Amino acid sequence: MENLNDKLRKFSETLGKKLDSGPAMDYQSLRKVYELQANQDIQLAQQKARVDRVATLQGKSDLNPKWRFENLELDSPDVVEAVSIAKSFIAAHQDSSWRESGSHLMLFYGDYGRGKSHIAGAIAHELINEHEITVLYRQLSSLLELRTFSWDYKAQDNVGEKFREINKDLIEVDLLILDEVCVNETQLNKNSQSWLGNLLRQRLANKKNCILITNHGLPQLQNALGQYCFESIKEYDTYKVKFSGPSRRDSLSDEYSGYSDTNTGYRPNQVK
């Protein structure tokens, strides 16, 4: 009666391959070899599946791919402090009890070009890579515009359905980043205040985290959002991060040397 090794040898000869000569392996030894190979194949499949999942999460997040910590210049104390807080926030996700304890919100405020969106995006990229956190980045103004258009029931572009789908994602995603909160707005209208306040409260109830980015100082932001919406923010375990360093955006020089904007009366929101 043929043993297992004889059968393997005949099978290899049928395929035109020569089985390496050597001492015959018993069943238990062969089983260990096959189990080792199977485990290696499973690990490779799991690694590939994880890479695919992360790539999918990155694609759905709508994040700028350049928003990474390695692309950030630590050129002022406020940025150094913000990065330290950001990395502590990321590290806290390793603690399951912290993640299940409630909802956490980071509020980034300061003038234009200070690195707020960059650091928020870097946090998101790290959380996707390390913990496969679902992330959605949106500008608040674009959401409010889409919401307004969704009221047009005669529209033929399915904008109402699109907004309902987006609104569902806004509620369910693990980390929601809302940028340009109340940009160029002294105060949101009451309807927008209520919608945003309800969104934040729904996420709070579902233990979902948020990052809000604004150019307003805190008193101005409270007035712009309204009391109901601002109280929703205060319900979170909130981390307030102020950006006050120099702008990191390149300036635009005017080709007309005589031009001056000092009399326009416009000044960006200043952090007090």
From TrEMBL:
SUPFAM superfamilies: P-loop containing nucleoside triphosphate hydrolases (SSF52540). Residues 84-226 form the IstB-like ATP-binding domain. Residues 245-272 are annotated as: Disordered. GO terms for biological process: DNA replication. It comes from the Bacteria. Residues 259-272 have a biased composition (Polar residues). GO terms for molecular function: ATP binding. Pfam families: IstB_IS21. PANTHER family: ATP-BINDING PROTEIN RV3427C IN INSERTION SEQUENCE-RELATED, CHROMOSOMAL REPLICATION INITIATOR PROTEIN DNAA. This is DNA replication protein. It comes from Planctobacterium marinum.
